[in-house]
TrEMBL record, chain A:
Protein name, as recorded: NADH-quinone oxidoreductase subunit H
Function: NDH-1 shuttles electrons from NADH, via FMN and iron-sulfur (Fe-S) centers, to quinones in the respiratory chain. The immediate electron acceptor for the enzyme in this species is believed to be ubiquinone. Couples the redox reaction to proton translocation (for every two electrons transferred, four hydrogen ions are translocated across the cytoplasmic membrane), and thus conserves the redox energy in a proton gradient. This subunit may bind ubiquinone.
Keyword Transcription regulation: no
Quaternary structure and partners: NDH-1 is composed of 14 different subunits. Subunits NuoA, H, J, K, L, M, N constitute the membrane sector of the complex.
Annotated family: Belongs to the complex I subunit 1 family.
TrEMBL record, chain B:
PROSITE patterns: 4FE4S_FER_1 (PS00198), 4FE4S_FER_2 (PS51379)
Coiled coil location: none
Keywords recorded for this protein, A-Z: 4Fe-4S, Cell membrane, Iron, Iron-sulfur, Membrane, Metal-binding, NAD, Quinone, Repeat, Translocase, Ubiquinone
Organism: Candidatus Abzuiibacterium crystallinum
Protein name in UniProt: 4Fe-4S ferredoxin
Composition bias, Low complexity: 204-217
A GO CC annotation given for this chain: membrane
Region of interest (Disordered), residue spans: 165-217
Length: 381, 217
């Protein structure tokens, strides 16, 4: 059961070797993971939209989509048909080429990052030795295409959304990347497979003090990275109409949506890989563990969406620069200390340093509430 | 402490999420085509014409008052005529165009013969824009029992009033008949003098509407 998909993969390759000429068999062997990802990505995205709508509906005491198919299970297909048949409107003054390219290109990094995710034991498309770096670099490019779309639309709301997206990305990319560094320090490799193998059984990094803090930072930055509530300033409905995709309709809009949801999946998968032990776990098959962790994180993201209002721009920036960044720096040092010391003592030291840091940071970040003014002479007898 | 509010908010949404699965008062949605709310008696939507025994004799006497009063002018009435061209007290055509009707209920209020009432019907969507939405008399006519079923309070009151009116009419007619008979007898007893004029008949009959039959608009 654990190696189910690996066996299927091998069976197809064996069949290809028996039936097809050698050069074609090689191509088939190369294409299998690509095809698997190209199917898995969009299908995941389609059903994530359904899950999100159902979950938000339940949070708001509604039913959610339940008309198309049993439990609304065919809703994504209906949405797809609707999106495909809608009129494609391009604003008159838009930069036509960029307007067309942005939604197409935004899907590419979202699909590429699937390649370095270890879905289970031996279930990885490419075991890159710079896997995490590749992931971070690729998911970072999304902002470029968001900005392209915003610029090409020739719409002030789009442009504002795009600029906010860039600002947000610059702020959150730094703690996002730096919060992985402790893991890299401890594991000594960028490869996602090596990171997962360094957390055998239940020895996940999240159970260490620096891992817990790292997980917290990494997850929050991941939410910010994929522009989801409460960090969805680039597409703030109440302020910017729809942000960077205001001027998009039909399938182009659907592609933005697809990229967003695939990013949600991949980013949650990366968080699970780096801090929650990826496919490691007892009893259940490895890929079940992986999907379980990933979907838990996705559901938490949706839960955030159902709960929190949007942050103000200055709160967003302040949180990244004044709290998360310092904490990540301290976290790197703590991880190094933890790694060098012996077992019971290292946990205590690391926890102590981190708790002190967090308290100090809270103290520094306290919002100053001005004292109530007393008008000395106003009420004089 | 910082962060408690965040957790509190998440607890609230989680409670809503979980309780929506088993608590009735959380999930108040009624899934309409399968389940329906009980109809309120005082709900009024589209008018219908009432008939007492046979759909061939509706209560409507084609007086054209409702068509004149109708604010958006959606009612068209043509009075029926007999073979000699004499107008009858019933409509030949009675059309209500639902694409114009605004469900105000003025027709019910102005009708002096209690012949038109507001219905509970609300699923009136049709495929065609013109002919399908034009409700002709055969689609509008509904029996007295239907009215009694959907609006029992109003129906009992109106029926009682009608009955009272009818009894009064009958009594008056009897009285008139008795008077006429007495007069005739009196005339007879007064031997053969000048032959009397005809006895008057039915003094209480409602006046014939003065206007000619409404032309089709």
């Amino acid at each position: 059961m654990d190696q189910l998909f690996v066996h299927i993969d091998q069976a197809i390759i064996h069949w290809a070797q028996a039936v097809l000429p050698d050069w074609m068999a090689v191509i088939v062997a190369m294409k299998i993971p690509i095809v698997a990802i190209a199917i898995f990505g969009p299908v995941t995205m389609m059903y994530l939209t359904l899950i999100e709508r159902k979950l938000l509906a339940r949070i708001q005491n509604r039913f959610g989509p339940n008309r198309v198919g049993k439990f609304g299970l065919l809703q994504p297909l209906a949405d797809g048909v609707k999106m495909l048949t809608k009129e494609d409107i391009v604003p008159e003054k838009a930069d036509k080429i960029a307007h067309l390219l942005a939604p197409i290109l935004i899907v590419i990094p979202a699909l590429l990052v699937f390649a370095v995710l270890p879905f289970g034991r031996n279930m990885i498309a490419v075991d890159l030795n710079i896997g995490v770096l590749f992931f971070l670099a690729m998911s970072g490019t999304t902002t470029l295409f968001i900005f392209t779309a915003a610029w090409a639309s020739h719409n002030k709301f789009s442009l504002l959304g795009g600029m906010r997206s860039v600002a947000q990305m610059i702020s959150y990319e730094i703690p996002f990347v730096l919060s992985v560094v402790p893991v890299l320090v401890v594991v000594g490799s960028f490869s996602t497979v090596a990171i997962v193998e360094a957390q055998p059984g239940l020895h996940w990094f999240v159970f260490t003090p620096w891992g817990a803090v790292g997980f917290f930072i990494f997850f929050i930055c991941a939410v910010a990275e994929v522009n989801r509530t409460p960090f969805d300033l680039p597409e703030a409905e109440s302020e910017l109409v729809a942000g960077f995709h205001t001027e998009y309709s039909g399938m182009k809009f659907a592609l933005f949506y697809m990229a967003e949801f695939m990013n949600v999946f991949t980013v949650s998968a990366l968080v699970a890989t780096v801090f929650l032990g990826g496919w490691q776990g007892p009893i259940l098959p490895s890929w079940v563990w992986f999907l379980l962790k990933t979907y838990t994180l996705i559901l938490i993201m949706m839960w955030f969406r159902g709960t929190f209002p949007r942050l103000r721009a200055d709160q967003l920036m302040g949180f990244a620069w004044k709290f998360l960044l310092e904490l990540t720096f301290v976290n790197i040092i703590v991880a190094a200390i933890w790694y060098e010391m012996r077992s019971p003592l290292n946990h205590l030291t690391a926890a102590a340093i981190l708790i002190v840091t967090i308290i100090v940071l809270f103290q520094f970040n306290k919002t100053e509430i001005p004292k109530k003014r007393i008008y000395k002479y106003a009420y004089a007898d | 402490m910082f962060g408690i509010g965040v957790l509190k908010g998440m607890a609230v949404t989680f409670k809503n999420f979980v309780e929506s699965y088993y608590k009735k008062e959380r999930l108040t949605t009624i899934e309409y085509p399968e389940k329906r709310l009980a109809e309120k008696e005082r709900f009024r939507n589209f008018p219908f014409l009432i008939f007492d025994e046979k759909p061939e004799d509706p209560r409507c006497v084609a007086c054209d008052i409702c068509a004149k009063e109708c604010p958006p002018q959606c009612i068209t009435i043509v009075r029926a005529q007999d073979a000699q061209g004499k107008p009858l007290k019933k409509p030949a055509t009675f059309d209500i165009d639902y694409s114009i009707c605004m469900n105000c209920g003025v027709c019910e209020e102005v009708c002096p013969f209690d012949a038109i009432f507001m219905d509970h019907e609300f699923e009136l969507a049709e495929y065609g824009r013109f002919e399908d939405l034009n409700y002709t008399i055969d689609r509008l006519l509904k029996p007295k029992e239907h009215f009694m079923k959907i609006r029992p309070t109003d129906a009992t009151r109106i029926e009682a009033e009608l009955k009272k009116k009818e009894n009064a009419k009958k009594a008056a007619a009897e009285k008139a008949a008795a008077a006429a008979k007495a007069k005739a007898e009196a005339a007879k007893t007064q031997a053969s003098q000048v032959p009397d004029t005809k006895p008057e008949t039915k003094p209480n009959e409602p006046a014939q509407p003065a206007d000619p039959p409404a032309e089709a608009k």
